[in-house]
UniProtKB/TrEMBL annotation:
EC number per UniProt: 4.2.1.104
Active-site residues, Swiss-Prot/TrEMBL: R91, E94, S117
Catalytic activity: cyanate + hydrogencarbonate + 3 H(+) = NH4(+) + 2 CO2
Domain Cyanate lyase C-terminal: 78-149
Listed name of the protein: Cyanate hydratase
InterPro entries: Cyanase (IPR008076), Cyanate_lyase_C (IPR003712), Cyanate_lyase_C_sf (IPR036581), CYNS_N (IPR048564), Lambda_DNA-bd_dom_sf (IPR010982)
Keywords: Lyase
SMART domains to which the protein is assigned, alphabetical: Cyanate_lyase (SM01116)
Similarity annotation: Belongs to the cyanase family.
SUPFAM superfamilies, per database record: Cyanase C-terminal domain, lambda repressor-like DNA-binding domains
Free-text function comment from the UniProt entry: Catalyzes the reaction of cyanate with bicarbonate to produce ammonia and carbon dioxide.
Gene3D superfamilies: Cyanate lyase, C-terminal domain, lambda repressor-like DNA-binding domains
Length: 149
């Protein structure tokens, strides 16, 4: 019996097929009716897909059942520490390092003692034209979870 394809190997195949077929992440998200950020994260190995989602994406990409099987698996979430050196990813870490303490204070002031969920969570992504150069707009939308004693 062959082992199940790893999430990272499946992600490599998805990326290659997407590029070779000239498809966008938005095209794939539209195919399964899911948000583009969630879909992209799922196809890169951070979320499990339903059987139907995995089948539809694999059909669109011309990938076989071994990839669909991997896409359905529960992931081990997180990032390879080497990815933190990527300039785009590093800037997110830098932004949280600079603004994280202020956001924590503001959450506590506005909501009380608790945290923002990263499980009951949505991420928005948009491009906003600006005369000084287009802006990247990323919105974190997490449920507030109060500490209960």
């Amino acid at each position: 019996m062959d082992p199940i394809l790893s999430k990272s190997a499946a992600a490599d195949l998805v990326v290659a097929a997407r590029l070779r077929r000239g498809l966008s992440w938005s095209d794939l998200a539209g195919e399964i009716g899911a948000p583009v950020v969630w879909t992209t994260a799922a196809l890169l190995g951070q979320h499990p897909m339903t059987a139907e989602q995995a089948e539809r994406v694999c059909r669109m990409l011309g990938l076989d059942e071994t990839v669909a099987e991997s896409l359905r698996r529960q992931p081990t979430r997180g990032t390879d520490p080497a990815l933190l050196s990527d300039p785009t990813i590093y800037r997110f870490a830098e932004a949280l390092a600079v603004y994280g303490p202020a956001l924590k204070e503001l959450i506590h002031e506005e909501f009380g003692d608790g945290i923002m969920s990263a499980i009951n969570f949505r991420v928005g992504f948009a491009r906003r034209p600006d005369p000084d150069g287009d802006r990247v707009v990323v919105t974190f939308d997490g449920k507030f979870l109060d500490y209960r004693w």
